[in-house]
Design brief:
The chain has 4 domains: about 1-80, no CATH class; about 100-155, no CATH class; about 175-205 and about 210-410, no CATH class; about 470-535. It is globular and about 85 Å long. About 25% of the residues are buried. The strands form 4 sheets. It has a 5-stranded mixed β-sheet with strand order 5-4-8-7-6. A 5-stranded mixed β-sheet has the order 11-12-10-9-13, sandwiched between helices. It has a 3-stranded antiparallel β-sheet with strand order 1-3-2. The chain is built from 19 helices and 16 strands. The chain has about 525 residues and is α+β, with helices and mostly antiparallel strands. The protein has helices spanning about 5-10, 20-35, 85-90, 120-125, 175-185, 195-210, 245-260, 295-305, 310-320, 335-350, 355-370, 375-385, 400-415, 420-430, 435-440, 445-450, 450-460, 475-485, 530-535; strands at about 1-5, 50, 75-80, 100-105, 115-120, 130-135, 135-145, 150-155, 220-225, 235-240, 270, 275-280, 390-395, 485, 505-510, 515. Helix 9 crosses helix 10. It is about 40% helix and about 15% strand.
Length: about 525
């Protein structure tokens, strides 16, 4: 076994985890031992067993974490469950899996030469016979299977240039300060740009000034409002502070739009600013959308970011690193879209579990690695003190700077279907069920489900059906964790023949009857048994 206290010292010995708190470490232990009340998904089942006993220091030879001191008290000990070693060996790693297709030279299955990789979206849009370019060579696709693309050289032909979806790096705050200075005084770039580049930059700045009367920089920000092709307002904040500042600011601005106008403004952030869309209204929206208080901002962002696509993507990567998205066939490609579906199921299952480690790590990544919250707080503080000024302008058409941002905005929504917004989901839940049944018809489920079906579901939920019986002591302990205290005489009905009662199970008395319970439920021994017995 692996001593929990000893392992905590080992982990803290690594420089990245030198300040790791014991509470966070214990939360991870709870995750891998099944202490959290997560949904019944196979990928969330416990991988280790936590022996709460003190141990005797005489573990088996080769036990990881043994100190070698006979008779020493080791505290809680972790022991692997079946499949834990295979999972760690086949699914370990920290580099995010992008689901790329390997491209191999056709002819000869053994030791086929690899010539590159393609994004799965690129492969989905390709067909056998297409010519693509990798490096300085053109290749004709001869076959596409679930794991790889086979090609042959296509000399003299011009091929399509491939694309790869990835995460572009955000502009850091330090570079943003240089952008602001360059916008205030293009001549300050000196010898950095040649004469033609300086002339082009000066012409762009002049066109921007003619359009709205000013050039936004890091000291003077501009909120530009204009109507789009369907008469709605598009509001652009010109902010050169980079996506690390603008992305969380966009979340806050979206919440302000909900407070002020009751709509989802669908904010999109880039390195050069933020774009929001508001329905047609008489009042011209402006700087009030971006007037966000600094107090409590980090806490609010932690809540807001959990509903974004960024959070979902980062959760997928964190879950993969945490062995929650295992590779069932080592050496084969895992389609990225299937990984997304699995991650969405996992996120739905654990979203309501407070303190779940993967959720905490995902939030930390978003707020610390992706967003630059301290820089945003400094910018908002500068707005409040007047060091940074917010100007508003209404224009008949997008200014040159705004037109450049609209390209990203268009790309964000061009391929998006008619997905119902969160508000429409909420509205659907509030429909009167009787009125809805009168319109679309209804069926009494009691007329559809037979007694046999109901009995089968109950047996599955109670782990008394043949397919849900525990196959080991570890699985029987999981049953106790899921069901709560079980009468001692009924425990054997939930396990296959020969399965022993787990040593970790706790014997408690409820209503005058002996029960076996998971160690987490030991406190029920002192509780009122009536609610449990009514269950």
């Amino acid at each position: 076994g692996l001593g929990v206290d000893e392992w905590f010292g080992v982990v803290r010995g690594a420089w990245p985890y030198r300040a790791l708190g014991r509470d966070v470490f214990d939360a991870v232990i709870d995750q891998v031992t099944g202490a959290y009340p997560t949904a019944d998904l196979s990928d969330l089942r416990p991988r280790l067993t936590l022996d709460p006993g003190t141990g005797d220091g005489n573990g088996e030879a080769g036990d990881v974490g043994d100190t070698g001191h006979a008779g020493a008290s080791r505290g809680p000990v972790l022991r692997p469950r079946p499949g834990a070693l295979r999972l760690a060996v086949t699914s370990g790693g920290t580099i995010p899996d992008r689901g790329l297709f390997g491209v191999f030279l056709s002819g000869g299955e053994d030791g086929a030469r690899r010539v590159g990789e393609l994004d799965e979206e690129m492969v989905y849009e390709s067909r056998v016979g297409d010519v693509i370019t990798l490096g300085a060579t053109s290749w004709r696709i001869t076959a596409i299977d679930r794991d790889r693309v086979l090609v042959v050289p296509a000399q003299g032909l011009t091929g399509r240039l491939p694309f790869w979806n990835g995460d572009d790096a955000a502009r850091p705050a330090e570079l943003a300060a240089g952008f602001g200075k360059a916008l205030r005084d293009p001549d300050s770039l000196g010898g950095v740009l040649d004469e033609r580049a300086r002339a082009n930059l000066a012409a762009l700045v002049d066109r921007q000034r003619e359009s709205v009367g000013m050039v936004p920089d890091d000291r003077d920000l501009l909120v530009e409002a204009f109507r789009d092709d369907v008469g709605d307002w598009q509001v652009v904040l010109h902010s050169p502070f980079g996506r690390g500042v603008n992305a969380p600011w966009a979340l806050a601005a979206g919440e302000r739009a909900r407070e002020l106008y009751g709509v989802d403004a669908r904010p999109v952030a880039g390195d050069d600013g933020i774009i929001l869309r508001l329905p047609a209204m008489d009042n011209v929206p402006g700087a009030e959308l971006f007037d966000v208080p600094v107090t409590g901002l980090a806490t609010d962002l932690a809540s807001w970011v959990s509903t974004t696509a960024l959070f979902t993507a980062r959760f997928r990567e964190c879950a993969a690193r945490s062995l929650l998205i295992p590779r069932w066939r080592p050496g084969t490609r895992q389609p990225l879209w299937r990984q997304r579906l699995k991650a969405e199921q996992l996120l739905t299952a654990v979203r309501g579990v407070p303190g779940f480690p993967v959720l905490l790590e995902t939030t930390r990544e978003c707020l610390r690695d992706v967003y630059d919250v301290p820089a945003l707080e400094a910018v908002l503080g500068g707005v409040r003190t007047g060091r940074i000024r917010l100007h508003s302008a209404e224009t008949a058409s997008p200014s040159p700077f705004a037109a450049a941002q609209l390209f990203r905005y268009t790309g964000q929504f061009l391929y998006e279907g008619d997905v119902p917004a969160a508000e429409r989901h909420a509205a659907a839940l509030n429909l009167d069920p009787d009125l809805l049944a009168g319109l679309v018809g209804g069926i009494d489920l009691r007329e559809v489900l037979s007694d046999a079906v109901i009995a089968g579901v109950v047996a599955d939920l109670q782990h008394t059906s043949e397919r849900t019986l525990a196959r080991s002591s570890g699985e029987l302990l999981d049953v106790l964790r899921e069901l709560g205290p079980v009468p001692e005489g009924d425990v054997g009905k939930r396990a296959r023949d020969g399965v022993e009662v787990p040593v970790e199970a706790v014997r408690i008395d409820l209503g005058g009857r002996p029960h076996l319970a998971h160690p987490n439920d030991a406190g029920f021994a002192d509780a009122d048994p009536a609610p449990l017995l009514r269950r």
